[in-house]
UniProtKB/TrEMBL annotation:
Organism: Natribacillus halophilus
Name of this chain's protein: Amphi-Trp domain-containing protein
Pfam families: Amphi-Trp (PF20068)
Keywords, alphabetical: Coiled coil
Highest taxon of the lineage: Bacteria
InterPro entries: Amphi-Trp_dom
Length: 83
């Protein structure tokens, strides 16, 4: 079942870049404001294409802090079912 779910997965957007902590915080604030004000958010891919999603009023939010030796990571994930 897990393999089938991966086959049906479509990655619409993924980005990784080093930023100053102030830039990362500003990006999180922009996302939070968009969700609070319109229930949607958008990203612009490197090729200029816009990716936009609308979220329902109730979502599941997962937060995770992981440390592997000297590497630390924080992940925030929002999930919901299409209605």
């Amino acid at each position: 079942m897990f393999g089938q779910e991966r086959l049906e997965q479509t990655e619409l957007y993924k980005r990784e870049e080093e930023q100053e902590i102030q830039e990362a915080a500003a990006e999180l604030e922009r996302l939070a404001a968009a969700l609070r004000n319109s229930g949607s958010f958008e990203f612009f891919k490197d090729d200029g294409m816009r990716v936009q999603t609308h979220m329902p009023s109730r979502v599941t939010m997962n937060s995770e802090y992981v440390q592997k030796k000297s590497e630390h990571s924080v992940r925030l994930t929002f999930s919901w079912m299409e209605q």
